[in-house]
Amino acid sequence: MRTPVLKSLLSSSSRKKAKLYRFDKEGNQWKERGVGNVKLLKHKVNGKVRLVMRQSKTLKICANHFVIPTMTVQEHSGNDKSCVWHAADFADGNLKEEMFCIRFPSVEKDTVVASNTKEAVKDEAKTEEDKKDEAASKA
């Protein structure tokens, strides 16, 4: 049972209910991945942020990936309640590059999650810059 240890190492931002889609390149269409709560989890030791979403009824993970500096979160084609991004996702147990779209019931919830994600991206970029500066000063 490693769950209590993991929970003590992670801090969570607010949970927001949403519907997640992934883009199917073969069919050239969006496919529903699940409905549930999306969370941004920050590791207390190394500071890395992970986006995790579980389906409400089955609790199956439908999104599980790190928030990285190169990740861009954008509004989805003029819809204020949804946003899109690319990520290397682990939800199926294998690393796979996916394009996601997440839709919230209200504009306010989308704004909160999008701004929290963008802030996490900036923090991650700053952390990487600090590591590079530290490595350069040691050399």
Automatic annotation (TrEMBL):
Gene Ontology biological process terms, A to Z: mRNA transport; protein transport
Compositional bias of kind Basic and acidic residues: 119-139
Location in or out of the cell: Nucleus, Nuclear pore complex
Main location: nucleus
Protein transport in keyword set: yes
One term under GO cellular component: nuclear pore
InterPro entries given in the database record: PH-like_dom_sf, Ran_bind_dom, RanBP1-like
UniProt keyword annotations, A-Z: mRNA transport, Nuclear pore complex, Nucleus, Protein transport, Translocation, Transport
Protein name: RanBD1 domain-containing protein
Domain called RanBD1: residue spans: 17-126
A GO molecular-function annotation: GTPase activator activity
